Amino acid sequence: MSTVQEITSVEGWEQHVSSLAPSTLLITSFHAPWAAPCAQMATVLSTLASEYPVTEPLATSWVSINAEELSDISEAYNVTAVPFLMLIRNGEVLETVSGSSATKVREAIEKHANKTGTAATATNGPAATTSSPEGEVATEEDPVKKKEELFKRLGELVKAAPVMLFMKGTPSEPKCGFSRQMVGILRENSVKYGFFNILADDDVRQGLKEFADWPTYPQLWIDGELVGGLDIVKEELENNPDFFKPYSVKANGDSSAAAS
Asked: Does this model's pTM top 0.90?
């Protein structure tokens, strides 16, 4: 059975990619230690990998990458949120899946793994049994189920780090002035924080507005509770200059849990 291999260096990634046959489907999972959904995704991928036999040449290759430690690789593939799955064959990115939906991940892998023919026996059965029931209830139950799954995911995301910033863009490349100012405030106060680029996931972008009952971005969350947008954060600091003190990491100088 296949297993998930952790890539720990850029050199290791390059060597692994160059060693694969053109027909091999490279299944790459980007993760971060502070993001709780990544642990869930690791379990999902480990289970899925076990369904695929080790062949010669490899039909599938499964690897995991720490998006923070190997930021050069993350930036090369425009990885702006975790968990993030990328399917590659012969140097071409076939499909990406952002988020922790096990169903979306399985469907994407099965779709592309089947093209090699090697894993068809292992994957055709589960694909057939899962797709038919979903088709029968799609018109009524799916929207409700989808919202429940999204809200569950959002509930995990807002707690992914003690301080979580939902912003447009990334700390190194903010895509709006308000997000840029928020990043500046967090850095000035040496706050260690996680972030999520809402431009990279429209489900989160739209769903969080309803989940938080807050219609604009950026949004700052602390310990799973919404603080608010830029104006609210500025107001909190005016009233209490030590507002961010419990989350300050001046000792190590690391101002972001997800980006440098």
From this structure: no
CA distance 146 to 141: 8
Name the residue among 78, 86, 89, 91 with its Cα closest to residue 115: 89
> Is-cis flag, bond preceding 83, omega within 30?
yes
Q: Are 70 and 50 in contact (CB under 8 A)?
A: no
Q: What's the CA gap between 126 and 128, in Å, rounded?
A: 5
Confirm if 45 and 64 have CB atoms less than 8 A apart: yes
Q: Tens of pLDDT along 109-145? A: 999 986 433 333 333 333 333 333 444 433 445 788 8
End-to-end alpha carbon distance in the chain: 37
Which CATH number is associated with domain 154-247? 3.40.30.10
For the chain, the C-alpha Rg in angstroms (whole number) is 20
* pLDDT tens per residue across span 207-255: 999 999 998 999 999 999 999 999 999 999 999 999 999 998 764 444 4
Phi and psi torsions of 39, nearest 5°: -65, -40
Q: Give the rounded distance of the alpha carbon of 41 from its chain centre.
A: 9
- 4-136 CATH, one of 3.65.10.10, 3.20.10.10, 3.40.47.10, 3.40.30.10: 3.40.30.10
Six-digit token pair at 223?
A: 């310990």
| CA distances to 197, 205, 207, 218, 230 from 182, in Å | 13, 17, 21, 8, 6
Q: What phi and psi values does residue 103 have, to the nearest 5 degrees?
A: -65, -45
In this prediction, residue 114 carries a pLDDT of 65
List all residues 6 or more positions away from 125 whose beta carbon is below 8 Å from its beta carbon: none
Q: Which two tokens stand for residue 72?
A: 């050069």
